Amino acid sequence: MDTATSNLHSVPNTNNTAAAQDLPVSPNAMAALSYFCGIFAIVALVVRDYQKNDQVRFSAVQALLFQGSWVVSYVAIAIVTGIFSAMVNLLLGSLKLYALMGILVALPTLASLVFTLGMFATLIVLIVTAAQGKTIKLPVLGKIAERFANR
Predict the structure, then answer these.
(1) Residue 17 and residue 14: Cα distance in Å, rounded?
(2) Distance (Å, rounded) from C-alpha 24 to C-alpha 32?
């Protein structure tokens, strides 16, 4: 079995239909909204009717972990980019190699762009999959989310 398809799970809906009809947003939509914005993930973890749904609970926890890791990654990238740019400016600026300096300073920005596009693509896949009533368990974050969601 392919690892991409083995991480795709259909989570049974544990809500009864009467309780699901009373909710302002369907459980699948709430799971998808959790990935879109952390506030929806917090709402999904606080509102009792959403807490009862395994998919919503798992998606909300994984969404918060995903968004948190995205912020931490950006801070780390900004720090590394700043240090790298300063080192390149000091070393190559003194040698008057401005063309090479411009290329080397642009590399971390390009890497950051590739990282952003990858994270955004992952986010879109998570949103679409959650809206369909399924979940994708991310390699590291999914295991942590599963532990917290099953408490």
Answers:
(1) 9
(2) 14
Give the residues across from 88 on adjacent strands.
none
- Please state the domain count of the chain: 1
Residue 35 sits in which domain range? 3-149
Cα–Cα distance between 59 and 135 in angstroms, integer?
Answer: 7
| C-beta of residue 146 within 8 angstroms of C-beta of residue 9 | no
pTM reported for the whole predicted model: 0.77
When mean pLDDT is compared across 42-51, 67-76, 89-98, 109-118, the lowest value belongs to 89-98
Tens digit of each residue's pLDDT (9 = 90 or more) over 69-94: 999 999 999 999 889 888 888 888 77
Are 123 and 66 in contact by the 8 Å Cβ rule? The answer is yes
